[in-house]
Amino acid sequence: MAKELLQHDVGEQVDLFLLIKSATKGIASNGKPFLTLILQDQSGDIEAKLWDTSDEQVKIYQPETIIRVAGEVHNYRGRMQLKIRQVRPASPQDGVRVSDLLETAPIEKDEISSKVTQYIFEMKNPNIQRVTRHLLKKYLDRFLEYPAATKNHHEFVSGLGYHVVSMLDLARSISELYPSLDRDLLYSGIILHDLGKVIELSGPVSASYTVEGNLLGHITIIVNEIAKAAEELGIQGEEIVVLQHLVLSHHGKLEWGSPKQPMIKEAEILHLIDNLDAKMNMLDRAMKRVKPGEFSERIFALDNRSFYKPTFHK
Description:
The protein is α+β, with helices and mostly antiparallel strands. The chain has 11 helices and 5 strands; from the N terminus they run βββαββαααααααααα.
């Protein structure tokens, strides 16, 4: 069976069909234009440069385009990069579909849906339960398909739902250890905290920011949606303001994009669980590419650190 993209080691030759995840124009030091491409298949993604690009090439090599690439994997400043030798757009005769090249969550959409539904079913506070169920139902299809981000963590098909399920399972364990936590509030905050991303982002393939995403951001979007849901359902009570606070503060710090810092116990725990799950996802995906006794490439979102895989790790 042919190797996938990230199964190739540095120095190995690659000849694969890949999907353009993003394409960014730049100007080289010699004044000539180039494209920075992020290319992907089901194993993950890699950066590549397309030098001396013509206007025609810029039009052709756009996100969501399938291309055939021949080249070599090399290490550039601590990060894997694909050096392109030959490239062409795929043709219908090649028989390759976009869905063949998408990285997806390790669990199915049906399992994500049933697990989240079960957590909502367990909620005892009727106001929290009704608002959560209303908003999840409203955006369920997109919730089950969208990534959790455009880069760094869970940036794959169904990444948002998978991130939420992982966080909910963590919250259950933590709530058993600290029974003073309000489970309904914590579970709801987790389900809703990133739900605005179904409006902030363009979709599950080659996700980019929408106009609303750029102008408002997912935090503002879902805070407004919570208020709208409460009004539609005729719900009044402190739960709505507290739920909005959990969403507003889930990034933890003002400099990390939170309009408010956590001021409620469950808000602090939500932030910590979110951070933990995002970092573990980044580390697990980075370490998949690393052999025992070697260091990973630098992970930008983790202070640009490299991580070592001990020789006794498999």
